[in-house]
Amino acid sequence: MYRYYRKAKVCYAYLADMPSGLSSRSVDMSFRTCRWFTRGWTLQELIAPKKIVFYAKDWEKIGTKASLQGIITDTTGVPSRVLLGWDLPSKMSIAARMSWAAGRMTTRIEDRAYSLMGMFAVYMSPIYGEGDHAFIRLQEEILKVSDDHTIFAWKTKRSGSKSGGILATSPDVFEASGEYEQLDNDSDNRRPG
């Protein structure tokens, strides 16, 4: 799906819980709290297309991704330079991209991982019913194509919680990792072997 959004000339986002006819200040507040920004699959819908036009519940035009980029960045953590297409998401660290997915929900737990495949340019067969293991598999696939060590830069909020290993169990644990940057791939950073 990510590729389809990337190739689109324009995408339209219908915000069913966004009232219309509001003052600009009220638009800002209502826009920030729309459910659209909390759903897992909408992250790729936000990042991949060059242009998005946002509409309120009665199809009143709210604005475009470009005109609303400041509010969108504040709401999602996705930098303006990525939203506006100046940088591809792949230029950002794995931890930063995972942080954009923190707090987003999907109907099925596995979809939290599956919805991120395009942003990390990896593919894995969906196995519905695998639960949180899908996110572990996603990270394993990412590690096959990347040497960005920020994939390990996550932290649980609960003290004494068991993560089960070096890989995260959810994008939520990357919430505070948005500022991490990957190191340049120089001779000191190369993968062994």
TrEMBL record:
InterPro entries associated with the record: DUF8212
Domain DUF8212: start-end pairs: 133-164
Pfam families xrefs: DUF8212
Domain of life: Eukaryota
Protein name: DUF8212 domain-containing protein
